[in-house]
Amino acid sequence: MAGSGGTLAVVLFFRLVLFVGAYGALPWIIGEARYVSLETGTERATELHVLPSVSHARTRSLSQSARLARLLHQSFVQSISVPSILFFVSVEESLILFVLVFLEHIYLPVSALQPHWHVSLTAVILCIVLWIPLCSSALLCFGGARGRWMTTRAVASLSLFVAWCWAFLHVPLPSTMATDTTWTGAILARTAMLGVSLIGVLSGSVAGGAIADSYEMMIRRRQRWGEQDVTNTRTSFQHIVTELQMKRAAADDVEAELEAGGARSSWSRWWSHSQKDRELALLRSEITGLSAVANAMRADLEYQEAQERRVQYARTCPGYVLLLGGYLFSAYCMARLMQCLLNLLFFGYASSSTRDLVSTCLAQAMRWIGLQVDVAAWSPRISFVMVGGLIVLRLRKILSSLSTMIQSVSTGISTQLLVLFTAQVLCIYVLAALIQLHDGTSTATHKSLLLASLPEFQRVFGRVFDVAFLVSASVTGACRWYAWQADGSLHRG
């Protein structure tokens, strides 16, 4: 009983720490969401997270308990909203699963950890499947409008949620799962199927982009294209700007001559065009065309200057180190692509999972430098950390694309939806990572009883991840190749 009480206190302490951490991270998440959604209204950047106001004389005249209650009210109660609550719950309930696995690893009583595990795992699945989609449907339909078309908006919101539930229930179960899977097991498998697919798409897009970036940088450095191209583009841009200024000055002179010749209404100019009127119309059309060309050339110049700065920085010592790190990261992405191909074509997806080659080599290198590690156990851990890094690198671009789609449907709510999407991605990644860790933490001498409730990654979801990874990386590479064809400077010798 004493051991169970101590375990409960430890778990509650970690839950409190994670909740406070989520509360502190919310303003940063909102800032990122506002950045990609281009919301620049009068609202503060922390509209979902109202910080405490500065104390004044009236506050100081209150008692200590009253001031504490006022502070808690201003800090927490006023900031409570449905998206913020879901974000807090998602962060706390998902990350506590990692903590529980760690506590089991240091031999805390599993019987005391299992109730927390089942509650948190159920909460994570409910966040992914029920709560976040329901809140997102309501935000998409209601938005910021209140009191108008409430019945219609409620029906639309309910229809979106029902459509999501129908699509979720029709997600195919992995063929390797038993046919007599329980209803809760099927829900977990479908959630994991969506999660593994999303993780594969996100990490594959980053891998394809990293390989393309390294290839482009190698060509830029070898051809030393930047200085001459930037100079030519800058000269052309300055020439266009000078010509645009001359045309504007000429248009001002012609308009001044027309005004000096006598004031005429726009109707009279419409019906009786003089030579000066036609000249002014021609100048204005030329100004419009030159302005469009100047804007396009300015964007091209800014892009080339940014590329030139990258090349110049890569020639310095810190830049060379970062460039070398980028090449190594691209090599890892290439190895990951090869691993997926080998799994699909040769290795297969047997019950004894095939280890990630790069992660296994890194774990073996840790043993060579004197660290006593279990290669079989550390290989999947290194693998899921690297996949998490891929997702973090891609998150801002994914949020930006999602923001564009959201704003085409509804305006003023994209920040809250992006916060919900971030919470859902976190829950999905944690669930997929725990499934991947199922193979690494279970050895012949020690089996994780907590992770035993999850399906095996390689045997059940390995093919899904590899296909999503390869397709996403291929599509990203094809898009970059198309962009290279439009960029003539990349092919100049």
Automatic annotation (TrEMBL):
Keywords: Membrane, Transmembrane, Transmembrane helix. Pfam families: ABA_GPCR, GPHR_N. It is found in: Membrane. The keyword Transmembrane applies. InterPro entries: ABA_GPCR_dom, Golgi_pH-regulator_cons_dom, GPHR/GTG. It comes from the Eukaryota. This is Golgi pH regulator. GO terms for cellular component: membrane.
